[in-house]
Amino acid sequence: MSATKTILITGAGSGFGEGAAIGLAQQGHNVIATVQILPQLNALREKAAALGLNNLRVEKLDILDHYDVENGLKWDFDIFFSNAGYGESGPVSEIPLDLVRKNFEINVFAPLAFAQRFARKLIDEKRSGKIVFTSSMGGLFTPAGFGTYVATKHALESVAEAMQQELKPFDIKVQTINPGPYLTGYNENMADTAFRWLDDSVNFTKRAELKATFDAMLGVPEGRLDPKEMIDAMIAIVPSDTGKFRNVVPQAIEDMLKESQRNAWEATI
């Protein structure tokens, strides 16, 4: 691939995706920044115009919308940056299964389906390329209260690891990016999802107890990191032709995850 890449990003309507889309365009890459809903489309187009980024193209691509997906696969790009995602919170012991299925559909099945189609397109055209999945620190450990979301990210880790081996002979690279607890609003919004169904008169998990669990994780400085650090890392990782398969940021979270995985071998019931 050339030094200047054409990169399709999903989930670019806010947070990491929006920041990475703008940053990659500012670096000179051709970016197709895709958003889920029309209000995000207009907002990001206005930002791109204000910044003079003629190389930042904004399109609608809801990864669950068949017509959006078919349209998106017609575009020409070198890198698929699968960043769109969603999180359901609440105790796995009690969460309604339709919410679990929904979370897997958004975070695993839809990104995999698009990645499969993109990989096949590259292979048929005898082109090299790259697929980058936004996973999570939660793809490598499991905190109580977020089990459904992190289960999707555990699954995504396995999907990416298998694809990385399978597509290497075709010169298609695969990576994951695993953000730590950055303050984009995503984690806080995810924590709120449980309280739309959790009912003290029905569930054995009580609302106050779950809220205290979330506050302990997200209400401290360590759970509210500056997202610029992660966006800068994405801007460096996504277009690169070399690098690690798994990319955890910041380093302190990578160290914590490695220690957690070591301790898992000695955990008792």
From TrEMBL:
Belongs to the short-chain dehydrogenases/reductases (SDR) family. SUPFAM superfamilies: NAD(P)-binding Rossmann-fold domains. One of its GO terms (molecular function) is oxidoreductase activity. The lineage of its organism: Bacteria, Pseudomonadati, Bacteroidota, Flavobacteriia, Flavobacteriales. Pfam families: adh_short (PF00106). InterPro entries: NAD(P)-bd_dom_sf, Sc_DH/Rdtase_CS, SDR_fam. Transmembrane segments: none annotated. Keywords: Oxidoreductase. This is SDR family oxidoreductase. The keyword Metal-binding does not apply. It comes from the Bacteria.
